[in-house]
Amino acid sequence: MNQYHIGQTVVPYEIEWSTDRETIGLSMDGSMELTVRAPVSATINDVEAVLEDKQQWVLETLYGLAEQEDPPLDKEYLSGEKLLYNGRRYRLKVWEEDIVEPTLEFTGSKFMLRVPSDESATRTRKRQTVVDWYVEKARDELPTRANEYMQKLGIGDIEIDVRSLNRRWGEYQEGQVSLHWRLVLAPRKIQDYVVAHELAHFRHDQHSDAFWNTVGTLVPDYRDRREWLRVNGGQLRV
């Protein structure tokens, strides 16, 4: 078994040589085993060059993000169900009122979902109300998690955008940080890890040893938090 190092992360991989291929391709299955498919004319250096170029994809897939599309409608949004918020699960109470659109409130100990009494609120409609609440909270709360880290890094005036991201929790691009709104479901220390990770890119573009050292100065136990996200990220669903 070959090994590829991305900072402190060791990624085992196997190479499948093929006479029918002209390019090098990567894949990772549900067991999180990386497979490299390469033409017989390729060398180990060729393979490692592709791994270097695709290390962002390798990390994101390894952390369990590649399979996290929009979650299935597995909740009915009925009284007694629970919703995640900042790493804790809170009971949901639902009741009907003479209103036009569903509304969601959080009391600090439970969620209160009011729905129209004419039974027009479908499961999809109720879920969208819940999602809208999370997005609003994420936009209010997640950017504030960056203040301390920006001071430590000596950077400021950073635009932090909160939205839905494709297959990743955070993204750094051209001086801007984007965060997935679903992070607001995670424990705050996990939110902090993702924020610190993206802000560290203001100092280092690649996931080099220097990059991970910078992350470590901001979040000393980042390995534990990264592993938590890899294992539990799929549960951060609405």
UniProtKB/TrEMBL annotation:
This is DUF45 domain-containing protein. It holds the Pfam family YgjP-like. Gene3D superfamilies: Metalloproteases ('zincins'), catalytic domain. It comes from the Archaea. Residues 23-230 form the YgjP-like metallopeptidase domain.
